Automatic annotation (TrEMBL), chain A:
Function recorded in the entry: Functions as actin-binding component of the Arp2/3 complex which is involved in regulation of actin polymerization and together with an activating nucleation-promoting factor (NPF) mediates the formation of branched actin networks.
Location relative to the cell: Cytoplasm, Cytoskeleton
InterPro entries per record: ARPC2, ARPC2/4
Protein name according to UniProt: Arp2/3 complex 34 kDa subunit
Similarity section: Belongs to the ARPC2 family.
Top-rank taxon: Eukaryota
Keywords, alphabetical: Actin-binding, Cytoplasm, Cytoskeleton
TrEMBL record, chain B:
GO CC term (a single one): cytoskeleton
GO molecular function ontology, one term from the record: actin binding
Subcellular location: Cytoplasm, Cytoskeleton
SMART domains: ACTIN
Span list, region Disordered: 40-71
Protein family according to the UniProt entry: Belongs to the actin family. ARP3 subfamily.
Main location: cytoplasm
One Pfam match: Actin
Origin: domain of life: Eukaryota
This protein's UniProt keywords: Actin-binding, ATP-binding, Cytoplasm, Cytoskeleton, Nucleotide-binding
Protein name listed in UniProt: Actin-related protein 3
Length: 318, 441
């Protein structure tokens, strides 16, 4: 697995199971975690044929500020129900009122499994829209005459989606900048992370022309100056900046780009861990090889001189 | 780290892996403990000899193409090119991939494969950041301490998991039986019969501690029963006698009878009722019908009369259970007889527990009679209570027990944390405080 999937596999497989023709409704009661302090509760509180899927996400109030409710309304419309207590957002699926066609069913399953992705997509969508309008405005000016707002771009949207890590999104008239702040729990991870990030940074040099520009540094980039909670100067936090250019922001590409970039942090940490696993397997193999060498190096039983009864030595004639 | 993240509970068995979150009443994922990697399969029967293909470079040097990248096609990412679980079976059916089972007889044999299996379990299936969660893993009885250390090394060094507890499957299985109405006191004393895919263990546990010297294992478990069903299907020349069909028939139709001779007679008498049919959908859309006959009761009978299947292992399960208890310290024997708990997929046959209880009772009663006779019938013993517990959570017993204990408020304090591991090293996991033992709720 190179890329992480965007949807939640548990929701997907549970719903697929229940949506199958001839499936008998059974009660469900499962909690499930997800990346980034997200949790789900999938249950059948009322009757076996009514499945309730609830999402709790740490930064939900921030997401709401950036338009999450509209995005979720658009995606889930009539499925939305009163949020279950302890959760931020719930949808209900009635197995007796499923869409007819297989395609629609598959689409519904997929959509529900993407609940976290969609909630988190809101600030990105907002920023992408802002970019479009700034771009529109900028067309009317030369770069000098543009008013302050257009030249500098919009405000920075901050999403504190993990305890110590955040995503910052800023739209300008010619780009959208997405900055991840991330922390490594371990020195080893930091080293792996460095190498890994270098690959991102270099991707464009190596001919991946379409890749967004990536910068990685240990102090807050310019865009984040003056944002509350950001410590100036070099520190523990690594800032990874993605610059999305207009070609990434077209309506056709936008959904995919958002899905992709949302999973960046987890993708990044997944690969660091997978790399460690890989190095471990090399080390195990090395050890096994060394052990084999050692075994081979054991001195063979030396051939003793053989003598006849009278004391003469045997010689082997060729 | 958010204080509320549920603990991750993973029970990796020889045949199936159960994955999920503490607090749930069933695992979120159950799939074969299999991994498909590039290259040919390990030789059949070989003991974990298959080494995964290892590329020249780790994939962080190659997979980092980022959005829209095509670099991955140019540079090797072999170490990430693998599948686990049902997807592994699918991939191995096609060309290019070999199928491996990293666990044999309950113990991890191939650490490279297991590490990748876990990586995928965590990131693809559970979708959690291991740094945010405590993990509860299970181990078979008599697991060598080195295996624990290897496990800890992977969990803490590769995955940086926040905390780790490794529990013995049998102890968890006892905890799982607390849901049964027959169990009055939540004690961790009892005899666990854990029969899954690879081995059957009979494990005496006294107050949460496994009595290692008395454990016995039996080389008959789910896989053997499947083979036995398959051989019967083959002998009769059924139109489909694949392993998969044999397994389905085993799981759907088999039961334990009180007496085979009578059962044969009953089949002849009530043929219509006893003989069944099983429809198999073959690839290509054809469907064939397989007759299901005497294997219904003969297959699980090999627990009670092993000679019908094997010529080198001949001791019936009830006798083994009795021996295990008799070789345990005398002061716990009463508790061991009173609480014989079933666990694992291969104990699910209908009436398995009932037959076991009857047979063990016979053995015990016969012994008591004999000793009374020897004593000249002077003293009458009060008898011994033999009780076999069949319960609803038996199938995933160890997982469910883990889920129960993993959700308790004190669970985290029983774990070793990443910080402790960093300070002391892998040997820290040689000991764990007893979870769910006396004193805790
Ligand atoms: N209803 C059933 N009746 C009989 N056998 C069953 C049933 N359901 C599952 N099994 C068998 O149980 C076995 C799997 O059990 P389980 O998941 O407990 O094993 P495991 O934990 O993978 O292996 P082990 O404990 O030996 O390491 C398989 O052989 C399967 O065919
Ligand atoms: Mg097991």
């Amino acid at each position: 697995m190179l890329l992480l999937d965007y949807g939640n596999l548990l929701i997907e497989s549970l719903l697929k199971d229940r949506f199958a023709p001839g499936a008998t409704p059974t009660s469900i009661d499962q909690i499930s975690g997800e990346f980034d302090n997200t949790s789900f509760h999938i249950s059948t509180p009322e009757s076996k044929s009514k499945i309730l899927i609830s999402l709790a996400i740490k930064c939900y109030p921030e997401l709401v500020k950036y338009g999450a409710e509209e995005v979720l309304q658009r995606e889930y419309g009539s499925l939305i129900v009163q949020p279950e207590s302890g959760y931020d957002f719930s949808v209900g699926v009635d197995l007796e009122q499923l869409p007819e066609s297989e395609e629609e069913k598959t689409d519904l399953i997929r959509r529900i499994s993407l609940m976290k992705r969609n909630a988190l997509a809101a600030p990105f969508e907002q920023a992408f829209d802002e970019f479009a309008s700034l771009q529109e405005q900028a067309r009317q000016y030369t770069s000098e005459s543009a008013p302050q707002g257009v030249r500098e771009g919009g405000e920075v949207r901050a999403i504190h989606y993990r305890e110590e890590e955040a995503i910052y999104i800023k739209a300008s008239h010619d780009r959208v900048t997405v900055i991840f702040s991330t922390i490594f729990r371990e020195e080893t991870d930091r080293v792996y992370g460095k190498v890994f990030l270098q690959e991102f940074v270099d991707a464009r040099k190596r001919g991946v022309q379409n890749a967004p520009q990536v910068l990685a540094r240990d102090d807050p980039p310019l865009e984040l100056q003056g944002i509350p909670g950001i410590k100036a100067g070099k520190g523990e936090v690594t800032y990874v900046t993605f610059v999305l250019f207009p070609r990434h922001l077209t309506p056709q590409r936008r959904a995919e780009v958002i899905s992709h970039i949302e999973t960046f942090r987890d993708y990044f940490h997944y690969h660091i861990k997978a790399s460690k696993a890989y190095i471990h397997s090399r080390m195990r193999r090395r050890t096994a090889d060394f052990l084999q060498v050692l075994r081979r190096a054991r001195p063979e039983a030396e051939e003793k001189e053989r003598k006849t009864a009278s004391g003469r030595t045997f010689t082997v004639k060729g | 780290m958010a204080p509320q993240t549920p603990a991750v509970v993973m029970d990796n068995g020889t045949g199936y892996t159960k994955l999920g979150f503490a607090g749930n009443d069933s695992p979120s994922f159950v799939f074969p403990t299999a991994i498909a990697t590039k290259g040919p399969a390990a030789g059949a029967g070989g003991s974990g000899s298959g080494r995964p293909a290892v590329g020249q470079k780790p994939s962080f040097l190659t997979g980092g193409a980022g959005p829209g990248g095509h670099l991955s096609a140019k540079r090797g990412t072999e170490d990430l090119d693998f599948f686990i679980g049902d997807e592994a079976l699918g991939a191995a059916a096609g060309p290019g991939y070999g199928l491996h089972y990293p666990i044999r007889h309950g113990q991890i044999e191939n650490w490279d494969q297991m590490e990748r299996f876990w990586s995928n379990s965590i990131f693809k299936y559970l979708r959690v950041e291991p740094e945010d969660h405590y993990f509860l893993l299970t181990e078979p009885p008599l697991n060598p301490p080195e295996n624990r250390e290897n496990t800890a090394e992977i969990m803490f060094e590769s995955f940086n998991c926040a905390g780790l507890y490794i529990a013995v499957q049998a102890v968890l299985a006892l905890a799982a039986s607390w849901t049964s109405s027959k169990v009055q006191d939540r004690s961790l004393t009892g005899t666990v019969i854990d029969s899954g895919e690879g081995v059957t263990h009979v494990i005496p546990v006294a107050e949460g501690y496994v009595i290692g010297s008395s454990i016995k294992s039996i080389p008959i478990a789910g896989r053997d029963i499947t083979y036995f069903v398959q051989s019967l299907l083959r002998d009769r020349g059924e139109p489909d006698s694949s392993l998969k069909t044999a397994e389905r028939i085993k799981e759907e139709f088999c039961y334990v009878c009180p007496d085979i001779v009578k059962e044969f007679a009953r089949f002849d008498r009530e043929a219509d009722d006893r003989f069944k049919h099983y429809e198999v959908q073959q690839p290509g859309g054809r469907s064939v019908t397989v007759d299901v006959g005497y294997e219904r009761f003969l297959a699980p009978e090999i627990f009670f009369n092993p000679e019908i299947y094997s010529s080198d292992f001949l001791t019936p399960l009830p006798t083994i259970v009795d021996t295990v208890i008799q070789t345990s310290p005398i002061d716990v024997r009463r508790g061991l007889y009173k609480n014989i708990v079933l666990s694992g997929g291969s104990t699910l046959y209908k009436d398995f527990g009932r037959r076991l209880q009857r047979d063990i009772r016979h053995l015990v009663d016969a012994r008591i009679k004999a000793s009374e006779a020897r004593a000249g019938n002077q003293a009458k013993s009060g008898g011994l209570d033999v009780q076999v517990i069949t319960h609803r959570r038996q199938r995933h017993g160890p997982w469910f027990g883990g889920s129960l204990l993993g959700q308790t408020p004190e669970f985290r304090s029983y774990c070793h944390t990443k910080a402790e591991y960093d300070e002391i090293g892998p040997s820290i996991v040689r000991r764990f405080a007893l979870l769910g033992g006396p004193g805790s709720t």
